[in-house]
UniProtKB/TrEMBL annotation:
<dbReference type="Pfam" id="PF02566">
    <property type="entry name" value="OsmC"/>
</dbReference>
<comment type="similarity">
    <text>Belongs to the OsmC/Ohr family.</text>
</comment>
<dbReference type="InterPro" id="IPR019953">
    <property type="entry name" value="OHR"/>
</dbReference>
<dbReference type="InterPro" id="IPR036102">
    <property type="entry name" value="OsmC/Ohrsf"/>
</dbReference>
<dbReference type="InterPro" id="IPR003718">
    <property type="entry name" value="OsmC/Ohr_fam"/>
</dbReference>
<dbReference type="InterPro" id="IPR015946">
    <property type="entry name" value="KH_dom-like_a/b"/>
</dbReference>
<protein>
    <submittedName>
        <fullName>Dihydroneopterin aldolase</fullName>
    </submittedName>
</protein>
Amino acid sequence: MKNDPRWKTALYTTETYNEEGLEGHAFVPEGLNLQTSSPMNDHPGTNPEQLLGMSLSTCLVATMQAVEHEHQLEHHAKVRTKIAYIGERAHYEFLVHAQICVPGVDLTTAAKLVAEVEKRCCVSQLLSGSPNYSIEAVEPWY
């Protein structure tokens, strides 16, 4: 991957670091610095599950905003993600499920929009193909 020529034409790159482990800090040099902790205790900080969920939901809603615009729809979509930490010593996994509601359209139309978004969202593309990842259109939850 480090020799992939696409690195030279990237639209954006960033670097992130964690030098302390799960109970510590993750940071972007001269930028964001987050305290991290395990979801298995009550220590302050965010955990990998939360960071993954926020990354996925942000990418999905941004992509949905573009898709709504292309279909001459006002942006009203909302995304909810659920991340589960499962497994046992030496084999842990995440289960990732995303729900997208698109107020103002019927569920069949929303499902078509979500299918389009699933193929275009960069984070969704990373997760697609995994049996641990699912996404669906849902009725509004509010």
